[in-house]
Design a protein that fits this description.
Length: 339
């Protein structure tokens, strides 16, 4: 493969013990929703200010090895005029980019979703590489209902992820492959496990068909959880269910599994990650994070759009990053939240 050496170097920079990925790639409608919750209007400059705050947090690189940016952010500057990808690199954080164009209904398959963005992807990746991105991310979304996701939906989404990953590797960007089985609904943990297992099987079959090198990609899956409208599960139960599914489906060649938080609260996501690392000491992959909300939520509340609150927000971000770092080492305890 043309870019094998470069892809290996990127994997080595991103996959490190005790370090994870910060997902700051919310699309315009999603970031507007997050800002609405803190009474901030989503203007281009407010989005820039927020992402500048994140990447300029001193010491963040101790816990965070990669940051997923949104296309707009890749071309923006920090408050002190540095290109955002460059500011990330200054903290030894690898900059990457979300390259999918969001989900739409899968035609003639009611309830199934599919993500768009493959047309012209190779050309776009070349441009992102020039702007400093070294990895990419694409998310497929699976809602759970009585009859969905359908086998056809699962196959179609797997095909999209694999085609995206193959294009990324052929253009020298490490692909983060993100199949997210949503936790919305009243389904129990067994149903979530069953769907996640079917999804992961299909994804790895498709990656094989498309000749994707597993050593040169990162998987970003959901944890296995009961639906939001079902009962809560203890971290030990989440860890057992999650590891069972991943051990059945994810080849050992994959270097790292970086979970999304998917609507879990910040403390819940850290506790579950800790339990997964406690039970997964024998797992062949690193078990890390690629959290968006679970890393950003407390910092966003502390910031509330006000310049004078930047230091408090950066402290909040650093705290969540450090606690998740401890969870990656299976050393997190709930009492640490109050210290
Ligand atoms: C599932 O969302 C990803 C991880 O974030 P959470 O830890 O908050 O679940 C996240 O990277 C997501 O893919 C991006 O925020 C983009 O989402 P949208 O909906 O804006 O395309």
């Amino acid at each position: 493969m043309q870019y094998a050496t470069e892809l290996e170097a990127t994997i080595n920079d991103m996959v490190q013990k005790g370090r994870g990925i910060l997902a700051a790639d919310e699309s315009s409608p999603t970031i507007a929703k997050r800002f609405r919750a803190i009474d901030v209007e989503s203007t281009e400059d407010k989005r820039r200010a927020w992402r500048s705050l994140l990447v300029t947090t001193a010491g963040l690189g101790e816990y965070i090895s990669g940051i997923i940016l949104f296309e707009e952010t890749l071309g923006q500057k920090t408050d002190d005029g540095k290109a955002i990808p460059e500011a990330a690199r200054a903290e030894k954080i690898v900059p990457g980019i979300k390259v999918d164009k969001g989900k739409i209904p899968l035609a003639l398959s009611p309830g199934d979703l599919v993500t768009q963005g493959l047309d012209g992807l190779a050309e776009r990746l070349r441009g992102y590489r020039e702007q400093g991105a070294r990895f990419a991310k694409w998310r497929e979304v699976y809602a759970i209902d009585q009859h969905v996701p359908t086998p056809h939906g699962i196959e179609t989404n797997a095909e999209m992820l694999a085609r995206y990953a193959a294009v990324c590797q052929s253009e020298g960007l490490v692909p983060i492959v993100e199949p997210e089985v949503l936790m919305d609904g009243d389904h129990d943990i067994d149903r979530h496990a069953g769907v996640t297992e079917a999804v992961q099987h299909a994804v790895f079959h498709a990656l094989h068909r498309h000749r994707v090198t597993l050593e040169l990609m990162i998987l970003k899956p959901n944890m296995v959880l009961p639906g939001k409208d079902c009962r809560r599960a203890e971290p030990g139960e989440v860890a057992t269910a999650t590891l069972r599914v991943l051990k059945r489906t994810v080849p050992a060649a994959v270097p790292s599994i970086n979970f999304l938080s998917g609507g879990q609260g910040p403390e819940e996501a850290t506790a579950n990650l800790n339990a997964i690392n406690q039970s997964g000491q024998d797992a062949p992959w690193r078990l890390s994070i690629s959290y968006g909300r679970a890393l950003q939520q407390t910092a966003l509340q502390a910031w509330a759009g006000k310049t004078e609150r930047i230091p408090a927000a950066q402290q909040a971000l650093l705290k969540r990053a450090r606690l998740n770092h401890l969870a990656m080492l299976a050393e997190y305890r709930a009492e640490m939240e109050t210290k």
